[in-house]
Amino acid sequence: MQLFIGGACAGKRDAVATRFPAAQWWRLDTAQPFSDSQQALVANTSLIITGVLEWLGAGLQRDDNDALRQQWQRDMAALCQRADELNAALIMIASEVGRGIVPMEPGQRRLRDLNGWFTQDATAQAEQVWYVRHGLVMAVK
Q1: Partner of 30 for a Cys bridge, out of 58, 83, 111, 140, CB 3.0 to 4.6 A?
Q2: How many Å apart are CA 116 and CA 36, to the nearest integer?
Q3: From the CA atom positions of the chain, what is the Rg in Å?
Q4: Phi and psi dihedrals of 100, rounded to 5?
Q5: pLDDT value of residue 99
Q6: Nearest CA-CA partner of 93 in 121, 57, 60, 130
């Protein structure tokens, strides 16, 4: 898996689209589990996953951070394994939200925590991690 991370309007989508022009795109559905991403995998075809922050926002109704994290860790590992089996490159685009002003509202602070944990877990699974800022792509792993 490759992870592209950066702030809003940093150029992540353009960088990914340029590098993977023939890829399929899959937007996480806020009403569905992360594991549903496996249905979008096609043999020998790159899959780009977007919508992470919005998907995480749907989990704010639950108050069990540890269970949420354990579930997406399992789902992410299974997705990566299945992608390897199908020889399908897996690319994830995630938003960096930890560098700005800390919001006053507890739910928004929690969303930033969830996003941070998710991107840490994605980084652990990823073979390559790219940070995108101002349209510039820098390898960080």
Answers
A1: 58
A2: 22
A3: 15
A4: -100, -165
A5: 81
A6: 130
Please name the amino acid found at residue 121.
Answer: D
Q: By C-alpha distance, which of 22, 83, 94 is closest to 55?
A: 94
Tokens read off for 133: 């800022």
Residue 132 and residue 139: Cα distance in Å, rounded?
A: 9
Longest dimension (CA), the chain: 45
Chunked in runs of 10, what are the mean pLDDT values of the chain (141 residues)?
96 98 96 94 98 93 90 96 98 91 88 96 98 97 97
Give the tokens for residue 135.
């349209």
Please spell the DSSP secondary structure of the chain, one letter per residue: -EEEEE-TTSSHHHHHHHH-TT-EEEEPPTTS-GGGGGGG--TT--EEEE-HHHHHHHGGG---HHHHHHHHHHHHHHHHHHHHHTT--EEEEEE--SSSPPPSSHHHHHHHHHHHHHHHHHHHH-SEEEEEETTEEEE--
Q: What tokens appear for 104 in the block?
A: 């006053």
Tokens 């540890």 sit on residue: 66
Q: Closest Cα to residue 1, out of 47, 32, 55, 50?
A: 47
